[in-house]
Amino acid sequence: MPEIVIKNVSFSYAAQNARPALDDVSLRIAPGSFVGIVGHTGSGKSTLVSLIDGLGKPTSGQIQVGTVTVDAQSSPADLAQLRRHVGYVFQFPEQQLFAETVGQDIAFGPTNLGWSTDRVQAAVQEALKLVGLPAAFADRSPFALSGGQMRRAAIAGVLAMKPAILILDEPTAGLDAAATERLLTNVAQLHAAGTTILLITHQMDQVARYADQVVVMNQGHLVKSAPPREIFADPAFLAANHLNVPAAVAMSHQLRDAGVKIDPALSIDALADQLAAKLGGKHGEQ
Ligand SMILES: Nc1ncnc2c1ncn2[C@@H]1O[C@H](COP(=O)(O)OP(=O)(O)OP(=O)(O)O)[C@@H](O)[C@H]1O
Q: ABC transporter domain: which residues (predicted)?
């Protein structure tokens, strides 16, 4: 499983840009981590993950994924090497569905990797299972599915290539509560099976529930990389970085850390009571 090491990476979209999209970012992500990447709009989250996927090269600094290292001098072929390890689910991935059937769509990536027909077909079926779609959906038109099902079919196309690192850019945007829950459960299962997850989100409850490391971006800078308990425990830091963490989310995270299973239907008062009982009753004073 590859480690990700980002060393002093800066990136500008255009030389005349007053402010680089990424400014001297350094970060280490251990294999098998679940990383939540958060920050205000335009803070550099998508730019950061797109460089990890080799979609561009750093203006300065280095990105290492496993044994592959890229920098400002790297060739397109070097950048493509990064992609061997990484699957990138773009925002609204269903907009990229194009084939006549779901099966053909999912098969596109594995076929491009040069896999045999049998291996591709097995990967298609496995990917459908991973996202919880019935095997028979392989023969359906992707455009005859619900919005949530289309999203899952598109994600299956990325999973079929069996990436060791999975990037998800706001994967639940526009989904209802049930579809959100199903999708995040799938992602948690992939993580449990060893996949490194990089989740860009504005939903702090998703970070609280799943992430073991939170990367906070602000105006192209990486301002902090730490476990959620550290990030959520500092209201001044949260406010300074425009992170809206409802009290219930912060509390539910502390309870998760303390080993308590959270009932999502609990009111904030009930959560506060549980937290006080578990952690010694100090919470209400903060
Ligand atoms: N293709 C592009 N060309 C020029 N500038 C860009 C391009 N994409 C992003 N930027 C700029 O780079 C900066 C970082 O953008 P980025 O998309 O990485 O932020 P983000 O944190 O992912 O934002 P959001 O939460 O809105 O998706 C912003 O100032 C943005 O305007």
A: 4-244
Angle at 36 between CA 259 and CA 273, to 5 degrees: 35
The best mutation among 47, 59, 89 to test binding of ligand 1, ranked by most ligand atoms within 8 Å of the C-beta, falls on 47
For ligand 1, which residues put their CB under 6 angstroms from it? 13, 21, 39, 41-47, 217
The two three-digit tokens of residue 273, written as one number: 């009571």
Which pairing describes strands 60-65 and 165-169: parallel, antiparallel, or unpaired?
Answer: unpaired
Q: Could you report the per-residue pLDDT of 159-213, keeping only the tens digit for each?
A: 999 999 999 999 988 888 888 888 898 899 999 999 999 999 998 888 988 999 9
Shortest-distance Cα residue to atom 31 of ligand 1: 42
Nearest to 96 by CA among 148, 34, 153, 39: 153
Complex ipTM, two decimals?
Answer: 0.97
Nearest alpha carbon to residue 82 among 9, 154, 16, 155: 9
pLDDT in tens, 81-125: 988 899 999 988 888 898 999 999 999 999 998 999 999 999 999
Nearest CA to ligand 1 atom 2: 13
Write the residue with the smallest CA distance to atom 24 of ligand 1.
41
Cα of 90 to ligand 1 centre, how many Å?
A: 14
pTM: 0.87
Which of these, 228, 205, 203, lies nearest to 215 by C-alpha position? Answer: 228
